[in-house]
Specification:
About 55% of the residues are buried. An 8-stranded antiparallel sheet has the order 3-2-4-1-10-9-11-15, covered by helices on one side. The chain folds into 3 domains: about 240 residues, Glutamine Phosphoribosylpyrophosphate, subunit 1, domain 1 (4-Layer Sandwich), CATH 3.60.20.10; about 190 residues, Rossmann fold, CATH 3.40.50; about 160 residues, Rossmann fold. It contains 19 helices and 25 strands. The chain has about 600 residues and is of the alpha/beta class. The chain binds 2-deoxy-2-amino glucitol-6-phosphate. The site of 2-deoxy-2-amino glucitol-6-phosphate has 15 residues, from helix 8.
Length: about 600
């Protein structure tokens, strides 16, 4: 996902832009650039590859000036190259643009502009924007703002834009449609950024620009308007988290820091939503009566958030008696799921910007459904387009591989299921108390697992070198198996497959041999799932499989059957996934570390997939 930053004030813009781009690196990118207004010119530098390449270029050719825009590009149209990287300029070099999103009608606009004499240097969709603005000025637009409005009115698709005019020396412009963009408010300086972590060290108040809005930033103020020129009085919001939340805080990677943050985040969610009298408060505006009448839920999400949705489905249907379905957002949008307006749609998204999840929300809204989001980013598109949101309050999740957001999403589902069950009378106050007592054990249990990281490291290093690995789990821990495999895949680049353990004899058992690590989630539960998992472990052991088992404290029987065990505290089965996944996060982490991959920014991956 591309990143956009911008600055206007009385400090040198280039170092501020580079600092902002460094804080956006986690989003994934393949090139970077900045443009600064300097001495009546727009001067730019852009390089393919890591940000360090651009920094080296700027050391050789420094750019002075107190007004500028910057960009990290994640290529969609045109290969990663210097010429395709942003900023893109108009023919006369007087207008520079950086862009996150896709201009869907760029081809026809490019043809039109070429016919008017414009020359294009890149293969990108973005390059049509500065030329459209330039043409609007040629056609008589009375001001930069008017020329920008005219250009924006021609665009179809999604954009978060930063725009710099040579001849408008006191302003940086920005505009948003479908891609996130915020305005950071400073003292005699103002900023634009794709998200808060990019400028968290410089501001404490932000404006979340809405779709169809643009803004003119000056050092002493910001004017927000709609694209058709109506002035808007924006809502100014205080930033909820601190700058250090977006720093390493002494950990070698953001991912390791975020794994360690999980117990605190889970405790905070419990403290926020479980009242002193033992009742639950969601704080989302949907009434108890709404949930009493509810008879169907559809959960839609992608990747790790999809695994959280699978877990949420099992909890909700088990505790509330409501029919619950879950689907990959990228598949849901092609279905005809016979959904009526009485169905509650629950999109789950850490970033709140995932394109497929947003498309599913828009489709469901066209059917008249209510949307209840579980999301981590205030002001994100998912939050804006939902009727209500349960915030996971994790602070920025910088590591591309999601960890703390995942367990927070699971906690959100646990609290939601218990709340709905209690207001519907599916759960007596005594039973609710029993469940909450068990839920309160989870943060300490996660902490206990994290304290075992040195043992888990040895196991991860021992099994990191194979071509593949197989993760097996049942019922509540089937999603855990999928999530453990995804973590391993995305940060260690080793193929890994998560499977329902009950399916093993329907095919995957053919894979078992002495070189294939088989990770079995086999924590002690009071029901038959444990017995059946035990049988699976024995089937693997009988075929000389390399078994890594996640087992409950005190389970000595299983330990005899396996090559390696990760011992975790026994908690109520429904809540065990939050504990078990911490072990698998660390297992993947240390396997990746042994393989020497870029754990926070794995190859090819973006933190949020804002394109379909
Ligand atoms: C998780 O480790 C991945 N980075 C990815 O699968 C992610 O969960 C998915 O893209 C959904 O992102 P979202 O939660 O921001 O919507």
């Amino acid at each position: 996902m591309c990143g956009v930053v911008g600055y206007i004030g009385n400090k040198e813009a280039a170092p501020i832009l580079i600092d902002g781009l460094q804080r956006l690196e986690y989003r994934g990118y393949d090139s970077a650039g900045i443009a600064v207004s300097c001495g009546g010119k727009v001067v730019f530098g852009k390089e393919v590859g890591r940000l360090a390449n651009l920094e080296r270029e700027l050391e050789k050719n420094p750019i002075a000036g107190t007004r500028g825009i910057g960009h990290t590009r994640w290529a969609t149209h045109g290969a990663p190259s210097q010429v395709n990287s942003h900023p893109h300029l108009s023919s006369d070099g007087a207008i520079a643009v950086v862009h996150n999103g896709i201009i869907e009608n760029y081809a026809e606009l490019r043809d039109e502009l070429t016919g008017q004499g414009h020359k294009f240097l890149s293969e990108t969709d973005t390059e049509v924007v500065p030329h459209l603005i330039e043409q609007a000025l040629k056609d008589g637009a009375a001001s930069s703002a008017e020329a920008l409005r005219s250009a924006l009115s021609r665009l179809r698709g999604a954009y978060a834009l930063g725009v710099l005019f040579r001849d408008d020396p006191d302003t940086v412009y920005c505009a948003r449609l479908g891609s996130p963009l915020i305005i950071g408010l400073g003292e005699n300086e103002n900023f634009i950024a794709s998200d808060v972590p990019a400028i968290i060290n410089r501001i404490s108040e932000v404006i979340y620009l809405n779709d169809g809005e643009m803004a003119a930033l000056r050092a002493d103020g910001v004017e927000v308007s709609t694209i058709d020129g109506r002035i808007v009085t924006p809502e100014v919001k205080k930033i909820e988290f601190k700058a250090e939340d977006a720093e390493h805080a002494g950990f070698e990677t953001f991912m390791l820091k975020e794994i360690h943050e999980q117990p605190r985040i889970l405790r905070a969610l419990l403290a926020k939503h479980v009242m002193a009298d033992g009742t639950l408060e969601l704080g989302t505006g949907l009434s108890p009566d709404y949930f009493r009448k509810l008879n169907r839920i559809m959960i839609v999400s992608c990747g790790t958030a999809y695994h959280a949705g699978m877990y949420g489905k099992l909890l909700l249907e088990n505790l509330t008696g409501i029919a619950v379905e879950t689907d990959l957002a990228s598949e849901f949008r092609y279905r005809d799921p016979k959904i009526d307006p009485g169905t509650l749609i629950i999109p789950v998204s850490q970033s709140g910007e995932t394109a497929d999840t947003l498309a599913s929300i828009r489709m469901a809204k066209s059917w008249g459904c209510k949307i209840f989001a579980i999301c981590n980013v205030e002001g994100s598109s998912v939050v804006r387009e939902s009727d209500a949101t349960f915030f996971t309050n994790c602070g920025p999740e910088i590591g591309v591989a999601s960890t703390k957001a995942y367990t927070a999403q699971q906690m959100a589902f646990a609290l939601l299921a218990l709340y709905i069950a209690s207001v519907r009378g599916d759960l007596t106050p005594e039973k609710l108390k029993e469940y909450l007592k068990a839920l309160r054990e989870v943060p300490d249990a996660v902490h206990y697992v994290i304290q075992k990281k040195a043992e888990i490291q040895l196991i991860g290093e021992k099994h990191h070198d194979g071509p593949s690995s197989l993760y097996l789990g049942r019922r509540y821990n089937y999603p855990t198996a999928l999530e453990g495999a995804l973590k391993n895949k995305e940060i260690s680049y080793q193929h890994a497959e998560g499977y329902a353990a009950g399916e093993m004899k329907h095919g995957p058992i053919a894979l078992i041999n002495e070189s294939l690590p088989v990770i079995c989630i086999c924590t002690k539960t009071a029901d038959e799932v444990y017995e059946k998992m035990l049988s699976n472990v024995k089937e693997v052991e009988a075929r000389s499989g390399r078994i890594i088992a996640v087992v409950s404290e005190g389970d000595t029987e299983l330990a005899k059957l396996t090559d390696d065990v990760i011992i975790v505290p026994a908690v109520r089965d429904e809540f065990s996934p939050m504990v078990n996944v911490a072990a698998l996060q660390l297992l993947a982490y240390y396997a990746a570390r042994a393989r020497g991959t870029d754990i926070d920014k794995p190859r090819n991956l973006a933190k949020s997939v804002t394109v379909e």
